[in-house]
Amino acid sequence: MTTETSPRELAHPPRDAIRLEGVLHALSDPMRLRVVCELATAQDDLSCSYFDLPVTKSTTTHHFRVLRESGVIRQVYRGTAKMNGLRRGDLDAQFPGLLDSVLAAAAHQEQRDR
Amino acid sequence: MTTETSPRELAHPPRDAIRLEGVLHALSDPMRLRVVCELATAQDDLSCSYFDLPVTKSTTTHHFRVLRESGVIRQVYRGTAKMNGLRRGDLDAQFPGLLDSVLAAAAHQEQRDR
How far is A95 from chain B (nearest CA, A)? Predict the structure, then answer.
């Protein structure tokens, strides 16, 4: 028995290590913001391959890693797929109202862009 | 008479050109977030030199430019000083509640960090 993290287990910051600057940075990219908006409306976790982003696979992987390492999403392996879920409870506890206001702002902006 | 902008007049995005991603990026840096929090509580515009940031003068100038170009602050010359004010009305109109939730989150985080 060891305390090492299995390579199949991805590192996540605990709730109280989630930093505002990191969350804002994670949300400041259009692709990452799009992923977060989709996860916010999803009923369940979504695999990385569910998202058809107009960027390379390695860039997609990078975006998901930024989201995970900043504490915005939780990633777990299910078989060979990485499943993604929004850490809504943790974000709401750390920064009440922040995620909702960003999601509302993104929805307003999308509406205006049409 | 020309339509050229005077070099003493700094370029600002109009309200409806302010983008969410740009605002979040501007706010994602600890120094810039600190400037925004101070401007939010100030009664009046503040000069760049008012802020004693632990970075070089050119980095400070860069941070203020990012804030201005993203639409977060308005900068005007008063004599030789650049004066800075938060574009609260424009931000609240574009993204209702966003600025307040970021300011509240920053205050919560600062409290926790103590």
Answer: 5
Separation of first and last alpha carbons in chain A: 56
Q: Which of B27, B98, B104 sits opposite A105 (nearest CB)?
A: B98
| Residue B74 burial (CB count, 10 A) | 17
Closest residue in B to A25 (Cα) is: B28
Domains with residue ranges and CATH for chain B: 15-104 (1.10.10.10)
Which residues from A are below 8 Å from B19, CB to CB? 109
pLDDT band at B4 (very low <50, low <70, confident <90, very high): low
CB-based contact (8 Å) between A7 and chain B? no
Query: Which residues face A47 on adjacent strands?
Result: A83
d(CA A51, CA A57) in angstroms, rounded, equals 11
Region B5-31: mean pLDDT is 92
pLDDT digits (tens, 9 = 90+) for B51-95: 989 999 999 999 999 999 999 999 999 998 999 999 999 999 999
Q: Residues with Cβ < 8 Å from B17, sequence gap 6 or more?
A: B71
Tell me the pLDDT band of B8, cut-offs 50, 70 and 90.
Answer: confident
> What is the C-alpha to C-alpha distance for residues B63 and A97, in angstroms, rounded to an integer?
26
